Amino acid sequence: MRGFLERIVPFLEILKLKASPIDVFVVLASCSIVGKLDWRVLPAIACGILMHSSGDIINDIYDREIDKICKPKAVIPSGRMSVRTAWIYLLILTSIALITAAWLSTVMLMCALAGVALGFIFYSHPRFRFKDIPILGSACAAACFPLESLGVCSIYSTLNCKILIFSCYIFFLIFSLIFLKDFRDVKGDINSLPIMLGVKKAAKVCCTLLIVPALFLIVLFLIFNYKVCFVMGFISYLIVAIFIIPVLLFDDPIKKGQSLRHRMIAGMTVPNAAIFAVNIAIYL
């Protein structure tokens, strides 16, 4: 039994499921803003998580030499999973995600394919490797989440201007926070915001970017009929931001890199969780 578990653990670890709440609440918040929620939300969540995890796997495959320096205990650098096995696992997970997306809606399949192009090819592939260009790489990764939102909304509704604005909020929520992970990985990165600007300047830029999602939540408050959810989303976002800013400005963000990553995930998750929870409680 112990040997079996040891063989299974690398397949779970490489999925990096700690970030899955981001996908869960992007899907749930998207469903709630179109005012519909049924059993199809479960395969939609599964599709989002599988696409996210597949993107992490291909990134680990291409980064295996770099990860020997900054993440020697990771699944591939440590030798617990071969590159060949990782490719096969990636193909299986991506195929399941794309089949699920096609089953749910044509638009969702198109969004998933666009996510493959952005998150798998342009972000990670050595020919492009946008991840080494800090702003472009972060934009590329962040763009996968509004695609997820649009795909989910297409299951329940025709896409309209309000849904497109909500997807823009999702983009800027992820984009504004994603740079926080660079402080943890600065030793193994070829290029990142802290390397490009220096730690102090990068920290100030990250603090400035934190304003953008708050502004989008105000816009959503103004254009949607059900406003309480965006008030709660705004408040919850500010609370998370309050826990991020002191680390960036008054502490050592490099030493606190792991803590910043946890707060980054909270910032990407908590506002959408609040939007979903309030909509479920009041409107659905």
Describe this structure in words.
With 284 residues, this protein is mainly α. It has helices at 2-13, 20-33, 41-62, 64-70, 83-104, 106-122, 134-142, 144-156, 161-178, 181-184, 193-197, 199-209, 211-223, 228-250, 257-282. The protein has a single domain (18-282), classed as UbiA prenyltransferase (Tetracycline Repressor, domain 2, Orthogonal Bundle), CATH 1.10.357. Helix 9 runs antiparallel to helix 15 (257-282) and helix 13 (211-223) runs antiparallel to helix 14. The chain is globular. It contains 15 helices and no strands.
Question: Keywords for this structure?
Answer:
single chain, 284 residues, mainly alpha, Tetracycline Repressor, domain 2, 15 helices
Summarize the structure.
The chain is an all-alpha fold.
Tell how many strands the DSSP assignment holds.
Answer: 0
The description of the largest β-sheet is: none
Unreliable stretches:
none
Beta content comes to under 5%
Number of helices: 15
What is the arithmetic mean of pLDDT? 91
Assign an overall shape: globular
From the 3D structure, determine the CATH topology.
Answer: Tetracycline Repressor, domain 2
Distance from first to last alpha carbon: 45 Å
Counting structural domains, the number is 1
Structural class: mainly alpha
Helix content: over 70%
Q: What's the level 1 CATH class? A: Mainly Alpha
For CATH, the homologous superfamily is named as: UbiA prenyltransferase
Succession of helices and strands: HHHHHHHHHHHHHHH
Return Rg in Å.
19 Å
Q: Give the oligomeric state of the chains in this entry, treating copies of one chain as homo and distinct chains as hetero.
A: single chain
